[in-house]
Design goal:
Pfam families: AAA_31
Protein name: Chromosome partitioning protein ParA
Helix content: 55-70%
Strand order of the largest sheet: 3-4-2-5-1-6-7-8
CATH superfamily of the largest domain: P-loop containing nucleotide triphosphate hydrolases
Strand content: 5-15%
Keywords: Membrane, Transmembrane, Transmembrane helix
Order of helices and strands: EHEHHHEEHHEHEHEHEHHHHHHH
Function: Involved in chromosome partition. Localize to both poles of the predivisional cell following completion of DNA replication.
Radius of gyration: 27 Å
CATH architecture of the largest domain: 3-Layer(aba) Sandwich
Number of helices: 16
Number of strands: 8
Structural class: alpha/beta
Largest sheet: 8 strands, mixed
Bound molecules: adenosine-5'-triphosphate, magnesium ion
């Protein structure tokens, strides 16, 4: 059976397309499904979040431009049932290359159709903005999910995204279905509620009941290079991702039921949670307890290399000392206290010295 292909798309950036893609993938796998994630973003965030080294040589670019077969690009992940077609840095230049090719809007469709994929779902993580890659995703997909964050700019994103979907539905892919709109990074304040009420009232049942709350665990998980459902399976965001995945599966089941088909039933929420907890345990024991700290350290040294790598040694030492104190404010406070104590002692000693001197001289 051909996999069900779903694209995560919103022309707006930073609204959790990648976070939703990777967590949807691991949650689908936790519910016993097999999933291929296609990372169409040159930032490669979903590739990294699924544990694939960002320095790999071949990726989606090579599928599109060099006709490399899917089998040599596909990577397995630490999670049973999840594979990735990874992104590499070269993907950033693909727009120009593809514009030179004919029929380039359907390239991904042809790649996936010819690949003989043995999985239940394909989840495509789209880059922000409307370019040739998101058009390829929408042309290849059965369904699209729009993640939306209920901020005053949410409507802008929707107003630009819905017409693009319509454009594809009218030409490139007439059977493309808008499976749903998902509220992400959701705040519990009046503005967010007003905006989400407005969107719900206009789009009705298209909006998923589940909404993903703003949760610092997602950011901690990203720092550790893990999906939040693995990093903290019991966190509010992870629980919401599990709920959303169940809703997604139920929607898919009712879509195929209209065509007289069925999908295999999925196990209960608790079974999926147990599987996430098991993966969490395996990852923690493989990486040691300091996954998060190690992730931060690695990011810090990458940034330092990028910013200061070509400066003279003396300047790098100087900056290193400054960064040490910025990163360790407590040490800076201790250092300043020590300096202060030293100055006071020095002053005390000099005053005492002066007093003795004046005694000797008889002043
Ligand atoms: N539920 C959440 N709570 C808190 N932070 C979140 C949540 N979901 C995502 N984030 C954070 O928001 C930022 C943007 O998320 P993400 O990268 O998934 O968005 P995106 O739409 O894929 O962005 P881009 O358009 O750049 O590809 C990230 O720093 C991520 O860790
Ligand atoms: Mg992204």
């Amino acid at each position: 059976m051909r996999p069900y292909i779903v694209a995560l798309f919103n022309q707006k950036g930073g609204i959790s397309k990648t976070t939703t893609s990777t967590n949807l993938a691991v949650c689908l796998a936790a519910f016993g499904k097999t999933v291929l994630v296609v990372d169409l973003d040159s930032q490669g965030d979903s590739t990294k979040s699924l544990g694939i080294d960002s320095k790999i040589r071949e990726g989606v670019f090579d599928l599109f431009i060099n006709n490399v077969p899917v089998e040599s690009v596909i990577r397995s992940t630490p999670y049973d049932g999840v594979w990735v077609l990874p992104s590499t840095y070269s993907l950033a230049g693909i727009e120009v290359k593809l514009s030179e090719l004919q029929n380039s809007q359907r390239t991904l469709n042809a790649i996936l159709a010819n690949a003989n994929l043995d999985c239940d779902y394909v989840v495509i993580d789209c880059p922000p903005a409307l370019g040739i890659l998101p058009i390829n995703a929408l042309a290849a997909a059965h369904a699209v999910i729009i993640p939306v964050t209920a901020t005053p700019y949410a409507n802008d994103g929707l107003l630009r995204t819905l017409p693009s979907i319509k454009y594809v539905q009218e030409g490139l892919n007439k059977s493309l279905l808008l499976q749903g709109v998902l509220f992400t990074i959701h705040d519990r304040n009046k503005t967010a509620r007003r905006i989400s009420d407005l969107i719900r009232s206009r789009l009705g049942g298209t909006v998923y009941r589940s909404q993903i709350p703003r949760d610092n665990m997602v950011i901690e998980a990203a720092t550790a290079g893990l999906p939040v459902c693995i990093y903290a399976p019991r966190s509010a965001a992870a629980q919401a991702h599990l709920d959303f995945t169940e809703e997604f599966l139920n929607r898919h089941a009712s879509i195929v039921a209209k065509a007289g088909e069925t999908i295999a039933p999925h196990p209960a929420h608790d079974v999926a949670l147990d599987r996430l907890l098991r993966w969490r345990g395996e990852i923690a024991s493989a990486a040691g307890p300091a996954t998060n700290a190690a992730g931060l350290r690695q990011q810090k040294s990458q940034l330092d290399r990028l910013l200061y790598g070509d400066r003279p040694l003396i300047e790098r030492w100087h900056l290193g000392i400054i960064h040490f104190f910025i990163d360790n404010r407590l040490s800076l406070a201790m250092f300043l206290l020590l300096v202060l104590a030293g100055v006071i002692a020095l002053l005390g000693a000099s005053l005492e010295g002066l007093r003795r001197l004046s005694d000797i001289v008889g002043l």
